[in-house]
Design a protein that fits this description.
Length: 372
């Protein structure tokens, strides 16, 4: 039994003319407040900011005050230890009271996380908080539908169930395409590009697990969420189906809320993963371009901790006079000029072996004996 009682009654819900969720941001770091509030507003949220607990408490006093859809709060404020968890309890916030709370803290220790979760916090982020990650998290906690509706493909040979499930998902704001002919699944997935694929398990022309296995053979659909819908209650059969490529299993008849929750959770995660992959691909491309530019203008070599050469660029070969095959696997002493004392190189290797940047001038010897 939950015996916690907030000292201030939560404000009553009032009609809203603005459908965008209201977020309370409680943070005494002005730079963090400015950055997060700006980004969240760009993402379509309304944001109200508070720099101290007193102002935050006061916002809950008016009886007609609009209750926030979620609260983002620091863990510690000046003059108090773990103020955030105390405020969650005092104001009746958190997962037990219907107002999700995200703690954003500089602390990354287990005790701090436990204090936050025991108080009712739903998530715990370590500063600096990435705005896009916070926005994705708030979308999940507030149930906000994205600007571009989630796309769901339903495949079932029962037309009545097919349209019933489609109606439930459309009512929840999703874009749904139905398919009663399982043999057309591949071309329909190619054309529709769903965020989630929901398959009946037992169909006459092709079973759900068979279709999942075929889809997983394509790299483009390795990460497509696949949810099985079936009357199958045998756990062994369910596990076999999941092993062939499924991500989730819902037993018919499915409660409407469960159907919407499963589709939403899988679609949101799929889009988050897609966004992460795109960011990684962009970062890799940028690094490749930087590496290309560096190769054109600098002498570059890579060595292991013992000084053995693993990589040299064209400029290194051009300036040193050695071919690449003459350098790879050799120790860097191959270009040593004997101009510098041993302590010079001892300092260099100690610095870079420790993960730090060494900066200075080195005189090396070319293959023909000249110095550079």
């Amino acid at each position: 039994m939950n015996t916690r009682a907030p000292s201030l009654a939560p404000p009553a819900a009032v009609p809203r003319t603005d459908r965008s969720p209201l977020i309370y941001l409680v943070e005494d770091d002005e730079a963090q407040v400015e950055n997060l509030s700006r980004q969240l507003r760009l993402e379509g949220y309304r944001v109200r900011t508070f720099t101290d607990p007193a102002g935050f408490r006061a916002a809950f006093v008016p009886a007609d005050a609009e209750r926030p859809a979620a609260v983002v709060m620091d863990m510690v404020f000046p003059g108090g230890s773990d103020t955030g968890p105390a405020l969650i309890r005092e104001l009746g916030l958190g997962r037990d009271f219907g107002t999700p709370v995200v703690i954003a803290s500089a602390r990354d220790d287990l005790q701090g996380r436990l204090n936050a979760f025991r108080a009712g916090a739903c998530r715990y982020l370590v500063k600096p908080v990435e705005a896009h990650r916070l926005s994705d998290l708030l979308d999940a906690l507030t149930g906000r539908q994205p600007p571009r509706p989630y796309r769901v493909l339903l495949v079932d040979d029962d037309p009545l169930l097919l349209e019933s499930h489609a109606a439930i998902l459309r009512t929840a704001g999703m874009e749904v395409r139905t398919l009663a002919e399982p043999l057309l699944t591949l071309e329909t997935v190619d054309a529709f590009q769903p965020d989630v694929l929901m398959l009946d398990m037992h169909m006459p022309d092709a079973t759900g697990p068979e279709l999942a296995a075929v889809l997983r053979e394509r790299d483009a659909y390795l990460h497509l969420p696949i949810v099985f819908l079936s009357t199958e209650t045998d756990m062994t059969q369910q596990l076999l189906a999941l092993n062939l490529g499924g991500d989730d299993f819902l037993v018919k008849p499915v409660q409407p809320a469960h159907l919407v929750a499963a589709a939403t959770a899988r679609a949101r995660r799929a889009r988050q993963n897609t966004a992460i992959r795109h960011r990684l691909e962009t970062t890799l491309y940028e690094r490749e371009r930087e590496h290309l530019a560096l190769d054109h203008h600098a002498i570059v070599s890579i060595a292991d901790r013992a000084g053995n050469i693993l990589y040299v660029n064209d400029r290194f070969c051009e300036v040193s006079g050695y071919r690449r095959d003459e350098l790879l696997g050799q120790n860097h002493r191959i270009v040593k000029s004997d101009v510098h004392p041993e302590t010079f190189f001892g300092d260099l290797w100690h610095t870079i072996a420790s993960g730090h940047v060494w900066q200075g001038d080195i005189c090396n010897r070319r293959k023909d004996g000249s110095l550079y």
